Amino acid sequence: MDDLARLVAEAEAEVAGAASTAQLARAEAAYLGGKGALQAQLKTIGSLPKEERPGFGARLNAAKATVLASIEARRGDLAAAEAQGRLAAESIDVTLPGAPPLLGRIHPLTRTIQQVKSVLIGLGFRIVDGPELEDYAYNFAALNYPEDHPAFDEQMTFYVDDTRLLRTQTTALQGRTLQGARLPLRCATVGRCFRYEAVDATHHHTFHQVDVFMVDEGVSMADLKGALKQFAGAMFGGDVQVRFRPDYFPFVEPGVDYSIYWQGRWLELGGAGLIHPNILESHGIDSERYSGFAFGLGIERIHMIQNGVTDLRWYLANDLRFLRQF
Amino acid sequence: MRLSLEWLEQHAPTGMAADEAATTLTMAGLEVEETEESDLGPVLNIKVTPNRGDCLSVIGLAREMAAAARKPFIDVAAAATPDGGEAGDLVQVTIEAPDLCPRYAARVVRNVTIGASPEWMRRRLVAAGMRPINSVVDITNYVMLELGQPLHAFDLPLLRGAAIRVRRSKPGEAITTLDGAERPLAEGLLIIADDERPVAVAGVMGGADTEIGPRTTTILLESAHFDRKAVRRSSKALGLQTEASYRFERIVDPAGVVRALNRACDLIADLGAGTPVDGVVDVYPGAVPVRTVTLRLARVSQMLGFDLSADEVQKSLQALGFDVTECEGEALAVQTPSWRPDVVREIDLIEEVGRVVGYGRMPEKLPSGATTQGGDSDLGRQMTLAREVLVGAGLTEVVGHSLVAATPLDDDGGERVAIRTALSSELSGLRRSLLPGLADVLARSVRRGQPQVALFEVARVFHEAPGGHTETLSVGALLHGAPSTDAWRAADRPAPADYYTVAGLAQALCAAFKTEPPVMRRASDARFHPGRSAEIVVGGEVIGVAGELHPAVAADLDLRERAVALELSLADLVAAGRRTMGFVEPSAFPGVTRDLAPRIASDTPHEAVRQAALDAAPETLEGLALTDVYSGPNLPAGARSLTLSFTFRALDRTLTDDEVETAMAAIRAALERECGATFVA
Question: Is the Cβ of B399 closer than 8 Å to some Cβ of chain A?
């Protein structure tokens, strides 16, 4: 074995024995660097006879290429192992709790109102707003309440003075909307209502209602039933059945109480009916040509049914332990 | 109304068990709220809607029951009608207020023996919730339950002048009613008087002076039709609601007045309680006209949404006592019974048909008219946007009470809208501010051991104003302490909320509603810390207030840390915002950033420094940010250093160093001149 072959063998042994990329770099410098052993062989070329020079040059280049290939191969292995090691060293306890993002939340009633609005908007209803501090006329007189009638007793009212009151029902907005309205019309309003009620698990002096009404040619009780089925189906999910029971509200005729059959039981939801022709006529609408339906229900009631809440008082109590659950 | 099933069954023999009968009545619109057991068997407690005065009677309910069950209705047997006779000689009836009393009928009974009524009658009265008193009173109550017509018995010899005068009360009159209460009568109430004094409040309660008792021998029985509003007015004026007033307010059949009187006299004779005198005094100045309503068959189907035959429609109405007098082609002429004043137009008849046929037969259709465009209201969208900003900032929404007590925290300087005759201070008026509601939630959360809260509400506030009130949307927020988190690393725990937290919320809201940036101006709102609060000014208008709650307010709430609050008018925010979305073209050229750290007297507000810098800067100034505020040992007392970071950029070119340096020199000079700023070399 000549010097060159011995050098290559030595270099290969050293490369194979390198334990890190740093050690390998030192080996590379020792053999292939400017002052490396193989590089030094280049200087011996001048002492060789002229005819041996090309041959030696070729053998030297081949030797360098061999060593370089070994180094590159070894470097790949070492680098991969070292990267592996670094990743292992950076390992953390992935089971520690995450940093909690600062999340706000909307009130469950807001969420329910948004759901109600979204279903109604999908059915072509325009959401309208009206005052909570309402005119007596819109809350009662415009809704066909007979003057000085016991029907008023059913809704104990907060009066500010003779002409102003806190609306007892979102239906109060019907008059404001029908006045000069372009037909056909589909509207809905959602908001706060007030009645002088003793507060218990199912009554509150402050509550939220949605009132939905449409006026078009040939609107019938059957249309109302169908619209209710669609609305209730969207709100509660699944195929619901709708049932009407006659009831009395001065602003609808026929007037009904409606229930839905949902998850094995009948749930009373609210009042409904065809808008009383007296109301349509009072807004200059031809009640022969046009008819309309109206239905209403409580926002709290919807959320209670959806979530199994049994006490209405939670909604205005604002106990954060309650609010955080929705 | 409470009614034993056996009594109902006597007039509507359906053979139904209690639960079936209850369902049938309920589905006919007469909701049975509960069924109780009694020694007469089941008793139904039926909720009668205010339009159906006729159903406050056994025959009214039986008629409905029979129609719904498609069984015959058995009316109460016709009573004897003794014409002529001497009753007219024994008593003088005068209606002086025919507008309030269309009909007044009376009969006289002699040889009265006041004893106990028979067992069967007493049991029915008890089942109906009435207390048996004596034979005559029990008979009047029994007939009232049976036919719906309230009756009253006077001790005739005690009526001065043997006279009945139906008139309005005069100033200063009073009456002691049967319940022993002496009641002054407001002027103009409908009363029954004899020749000298009031002896009954018409349709409400009789007087003690003419009450029948053990020594009564001769009675005058009253059966009358009083105006519903007159009875309601008396009932409200006296704070007295009776079985009689309840029925009169809901209208009693004017045609049944004499029948009830005769029925009571028959019972008195049958039960040996007295000898009715022949003859009925019946003063009837206001006969109710018969009403005929036209009903088109096509309209019935159109409104109910399904087809019904003429025969079906006719039978349904007849079952309820309506008289179909003509059936010409496609229209019926329907005569409404005297006990159904609530039926006045075609749609009322359509409801009757629907009720009897049953809504169960109605199909479900979908409105098929022209498509309409759905969408949320402007207010709805504005509220949603405000909520998005505050939820995004980590706040929790609450829904507070609109009705509040008048507290200092509610006093925003405006006038309160007060509720008339409030029953409690908590329900005495409408809120002017959202802060009391938010503070209430905070106080309760503190008591529950959860003192750290970040709350907001978007709701309406009310102010009384000359020429009418205002009702406007407001945004309120209240934060106390650091938001509570479960973070185990200090770096993940947010800092406690302070003035700058709420000022930041105000800025975020302004940005979301596209107003110009708000200017914070020191405020003088008594609810806030005078040194740590500000009015929020946008476009020169004050739109709200932000700051630390006044320590006195915080102490009332038992707070350990500083609480900060924000309230601004959403309406003003919307008004100050840009209507349409604008667009600023981003420049393709690089920007240049330069910092400046002027030392300035600590009592010079940042806003003044900022304004001076902005005024001196060229148009190429893209942004100005405050990146540090420093005061400390390296600075003279009373001075602080503000680090301002200026970014310059042009849309059409790369700025040269010269341009930027010139701009910075101008700003520096302005700060020295306007704010007394010094710079470290």
Answer: yes
B109, B262 Cβ separation under 8 angstroms: no
Q: Which residues of B touch A218 (CB under 8 A)?
A: 302, 369
Query: CB under 8 Å to B147, separation ≥6 — which residues?
Result: B57, B58, B59, B76, B256, B259, B260, B263
Q: Three-state SS across B225-279? A: ECCHHHHHHHHHHHCCCCHHHHHHHCCCCHHHHHHHHHHHHHHHHHCCCCEECCC
- A216 in a structural domain: yes
Picking from A169, A129, A201, A181, the residue whose alpha carbon sits closest to that of residue A270 is A169
Q: Give the whole-angstrom CA distance, residue B348 versus residue B366.
A: 24
Q: What is the mean pLDDT of residues B86-98?
A: 92
With H, G, I as helix, E, B as strand and everything else as coil, classify residue A15: helix
pLDDT tens readout for residues A86-120: 999 999 999 998 888 888 999 999 999 999 999 99
Question: ipTM greater than 0.85, yes or no?
Answer: yes
Say if A198 is an interface residue toward chain B (CB within 8 Å).
no
Q: What is the pLDDT of residues A257-313, one digit of tens each?
A: 999 998 889 999 999 999 999 999 999 999 999 999 999 999 999 999 999 999 999
Q: How far apart are CA B329 and CA A101, in angstroms?
A: 74
CA distances from residue B55 to B49, B107, B355 in whole angstroms, order as listed: 9, 26, 15
Taking alpha carbons only, the member of A194, A174, A156 closest to residue A252 is A174
Q: Is B480 among the domain residues?
A: yes
Q: How many domains does chain B have?
A: 5
Name the minimum distance, in Å, from the CA of A224 to any CA of chain B: 8
CA distances from A304 to A164, A201, A236, A309, A325 (A): 31, 11, 11, 4, 13
Token pair of B681, please?
A: 């070399």
Asked whether residue B259 is domain-assigned, the answer is yes
Using the 3D structure, point to which of A89, A123, A140 is the last residue of a domain.
Answer: A89
Phi, psi (rounded to 5 degrees) for B438: -65, -40
Nearest to B298 by CA among B277, B344, B329: B329
Span B45-50, average pLDDT: 95
* B75 part of a folded domain: no
The parent domain of residue B510 ranges over 378-485+494-576
pLDDT at position B581, please? Answer: 65
Place of tokens 């908590």: B426
Alpha helix (H) residue ranges in B491-603: 499-512, 551-556, 570-576
* Strand runs labelled E in chain A: 126-127, 133-135, 164-166, 185-194, 206-217, 241-246, 252-262, 265-275, 290-298
Q: What is the mean pLDDT of residues A20-28?
A: 91
- Give the count of beta carbons closer than 10 Å to the beta carbon of residue A94: 6
Distance in angstroms (rounded) separating the CA atoms of residues B136 and B155: 11
The count of CB pairs under 8 A between chains A and B is 244
Q: Based on the domain organization, do B9 and B100 belong to the same domain?
A: no
Shortest CA gap B352–chain A (Å): 8
Catalogue the E-assigned strands of A29-152: 126-127, 133-135
Mean pLDDT throughout A224-233? Answer: 95
Per-residue confidence (pLDDT) for residue A156, from 0 to 100: 87
Q: Which residues of B touch A255 (CB under 8 A)?
A: 351
Number of domains forming the structure of chain A: 2
- Asked whether residue A20 falls in the same domain as residue A140, the answer is no
Task: Find residues 612-671 of chain B whose CB sits inside 8 Å of chain A.
Answer: none
Q: Do B423 and A196 touch (CB under 8 A)?
A: yes
